[in-house]
Fold each of these.
Amino acid sequence: MATDHTHDPGARSWLASANAPGTDFPIQNLPFGVFRPAAGAAARGGVAIGDAIVDLAALSAAGVLGGVAAQGAAACAQPVLNDFMAMGPPAWRGLRHALFALLRADAGGAGADALRASLVPQADAELLLPTRIGDYTDFYTSIHHARNVGRVIRPDNPLTPNFQWLPIAYHGRASSVVVSGGGFHRPMGQARPPGSPAPLYGPCARLDYELEMGFYVGPGNAQGRRIPLADAEQHIFGMCLLNDWSARDHQFWEMDPLGPFLGKNFCTTVSPWVVTMDALAPFRVPFERPADEPQPLPYLDEPGNRARGGVDVRLEVRLETAEHRQRGLPPDRLSATSLRHQYWTPAQMLAQHTVGGCNLQSGDLLGTGTISGPTEEEAGAIVELSRGGTRQVALPATGETRTFLQDHDTVILRGWCEKAGAARIGFGESRGTVWPAADA
């Protein structure tokens, strides 16, 4: 993914809000999503720019685009982006370039007029899931998170023998993936308290968040035909923020001997905007593995991935309690880290997913797993910050503390890319609230 004129940090838009300092959605970003412009309206694809959305159904109907950009906009006029994602990089890039040209400060003519007419204020829109998610897979690719959580479960041997040899994953539940802004009921299930001879049934007592990113599959692959690592990024459309909520007490009890089930399947919250891999091109970083650690097997190793396989996305977690809301206080920041710390890259995850013959489909969602950095302040889950519930996590704004999440807590994930010589681009936020357990 090479940089081009759409990454020019000096580029400006005629839409003033797209040029505001700190905006997540400048002209260099142009993330895709799905929205309803008004209550009762049909869902359609859109692109975020400043505080507005380009209605791609309206722009397509205006007939001002040509070639592959017109084909891409027509695909985005549907209620989900699956067909557009299936078209592949030429269509993604063609539409991105066409929108960039129409949004530039010096743009004029019928095309720019049609785009102006297609704008919808983000504040008036209902944001929806961007794809029809056929399958959802969540990986486990932060060595720092694995060691931190492993010490809670297996203090003497926190890292499993396979972790440094392949991207580990489990099959998640696509039906419970929801878009940012809502909430979920505290899950019910079994857990065995320490020292108890038998498990107890009841609401989760150790509810956690997980700071993750997700990525959406573009073109899929035929069953039995793997995607080589060198080709993997041609099958990744873009990335979002993802919170893989976790019922730790249920999870740790049921993961003997199989993987996560009820501890993970009740809710996963994603941000609505998908930042394309093209937009992330200026923020690619090398994939580096310490020389004294196992090196990837040949099918998980190739020069392009070593040179630019990582992405430096800065991430943070904030917690807003009922007390914050009642007193009008800003949420407390719990931690901050970067995607660049992951032990495996998105391309390696996708290649591993298909190596046995699994057929991915356009619009499928893959999660990176919890993203934690090497320091205590970079932990991506509260189970790490509280050391398995043995230490209180302070919330300075209200004077409260937490070991795990309480009812009415809201967790907010934010992400952005920023460096000298490039325009800052953002992901918006993934926001979700814990509701009390529902009656049976």
Amino acid sequence: MADNAAVDPTLDLIERAITQMGDVIAAITPEQASLPTPCEDWHVRRLVNHVVGQILRDFVISARGETPQWGAPHEDIGDDWGAEFRTRARPLLETWRAADLDRLVPGMGGEAPLRGRADQQITEFAMHAWDLSRATGQTRTLDPELAEHALAWSKQLLKPEFRGPGKAFGHEVPIADDAPAYDRLAAWFGRDPGWTAPA
């Protein structure tokens, strides 16, 4: 991305979130495919399939201001997950770079600026980057600004009625206010921030 002070902060964050997600996926080795992740009942391969074969496709549609079929099955991806992510992320980056982030698009509560959809994507990429990084024992330092942004956005929208058995999110896990950003993000989304892969 060009060094340009006029770049919209939301666009900067979505680009960083996509780059970070791609770096995490590229570092996963084939023998790690069956490892568990902090997402209950989701192993590494299933979560990568979700990110690369499903949400990248859906996020491009969403970034255009359209409504994807969120429940549609993921597309098949090849064995080189890092390359697949980079290839499939390119249209998403191009769509966001060309977008008017303040354009009003349909939302759950009526029309809202398109940048809210970018906020959703930043949040999902940040959370799943932590999931996969933790599952595969990566020691990289994840971008804390992405986690802070994800927390600020999601705390406005993730209501108690969306949490619990059989629902999209687990119950919030108690955690100190001064805990690291990704630990707080994981706890907010119902993950155990101290989770480690079984030996």
